[in-house]
Amino acid sequence: MRIILAPMEGVVDHTMRAMLTEVGGIDRCVTEFLRITNHLLPRRVFYRYCPELHHGGNTASGIPVYIQLLGGQAGPLAANAHRAAELGAAGIDLNFGCPAKQVNNSDGGSVILKQPERVFTLIQQTRQAVPVDTAVTAKIRLGFHDRSLLGDICQAVFSAGANELVIHARTREDGYKPPAYWEAIADIQANSPIPIIANGEIWSRQDYQRCIEQSGCDDIMLGRGILSRPDLAKQIRSGATSAAMPWPAISTLLEQFAVVTEQHYQRKYVGNRVKQWLAYLRRNYPEAEDLFEQVKRLHWPEEIAEAITQQRKTLLQTTGSA
Questions:
Q1: Same domain for 100 and 58
Q2: Angle, CA of 299, 301 and 305, to the nearest 5°
Q3: Three-state DSSP state, 230
């Protein structure tokens, strides 16, 4: 069983990857997508999205990081995959799952699932552009409007030479509305020549168990679930049913996220990332709701870090626990 950290746009940056892999239970990470149009991106862009390239393509905990590319032109996609591999990327992941209208209207993400032959071409040319020992993986949904092309899409992925396939168990039309249709993956998994990784709506160990039972998959990808409970991968792997990671530990990570993230982004954008993470944490932590209300109108990293510190001090005075 392997657990992969999803490339959550706007929040799972290198700081988050470092923190969550240190918490434990994660076998692989994937970057936020690099948008590929018609040109070769400068090396500095790859290093900005994946600073782990400076350290062998791994997080500080030794967990490999794949670089995710999103685009609809095979030549530029392959050229940028080649550059990523040259820079030491542990693997290349191709995004055919993003449901955002802006991305789809720009010929990227899940809109390409309408044409399985394009999925084949994009993967095949990427596969040919990188060394044989550099993994090429793909992430898809069950389809765009419906599931009618799922078999053709998956066959295109297999025939093009991908090493692994992540399936988000919803269509683009489904968006992120529950449920995830894990059972729709079962036939693909049973007949696949490559590993299939199930993704979507895994918020707890119980969800994980239902997912693997219904999908037949051994491996999963965690996104929103692990952002709402940072020790979810560790819990799944250990089989434990203990209480979630305590809020004081989460608070420390939040403060670190606010401070360290500032080193790699314009200061005015750091607060948005912290707030987005708090929005996920609210699912499991009432303290996150309180903190979100305190920081939602703040903009600068130091303001947000100070609010986190003050909440911790207040809780310590109230409960006598750190």
A1: yes
A2: 115
A3: coil
Q: How many CB atoms lie within 10 A of CB 215?
A: 27
Residues 83 and 149 in one domain: yes
Residue 127 CB coordination number (10 Å): 20
The CATH code of the domain that includes 289 is: 1.20.225.30
Clarify whether 98 is annotated catalytic. Answer: yes
Q: What are phi and psi of 3, to 5 degrees?
A: -125, 125
- State the greatest distance between any 2 C-alpha atoms of the chain, in Å, as a whole number: 62
Question: Mind giving me the DSSP string for 167-209?
Answer: EESS-TTTTT-S---GGGGHHHHHT-SS-EEEES---SHHHHH
Same domain membership, residue 284 and residue 148: no
Total number of domains in the chain: 2
- Parent domain of 268: 247-319
Q: Which residues contact 155 (CB under 8 A, 6 or more apart)?
A: 116
Task: Output the tens digit of pLDDT for each of the chain's 322 residues.
Answer: 999 999 999 899 999 999 999 999 999 999 999 999 999 999 999 999 999 999 999 999 999 999 999 999 999 999 999 999 999 999 999 999 999 999 999 999 999 999 999 999 999 999 999 999 999 999 999 999 999 999 999 999 999 999 999 999 999 999 999 999 999 999 999 999 999 999 999 999 999 999 999 999 999 999 999 999 999 999 999 886 667 799 999 999 998 888 876 566 667 777 888 999 999 999 999 999 999 999 999 888 889 989 999 998 898 888 754 4
Contact (Cβ atoms closer than 8 angstroms) between residue 57 and residue 93? no
Reading the block at residue 237, the tokens are 């792997």
Q: Are residues 169 and 297 in the same domain?
A: no
Catalytic residue among 29, 50, 98, 217: 98
Task: Say yes or no: 275 and 144 in one domain.
Answer: no
Tell me how crowded residue 204 is: count the other CB atoms within 10 A of its CB. 17
Is residue 237 classed as helix, strand or coil in its secondary structure?
helix
Looking at the DSSP assignment, which residues form a beta bridge with residue 64?
58
CA distance 155 to 194: 11
Residue 110 corresponds to which tokens in the numbers above?
């899940």
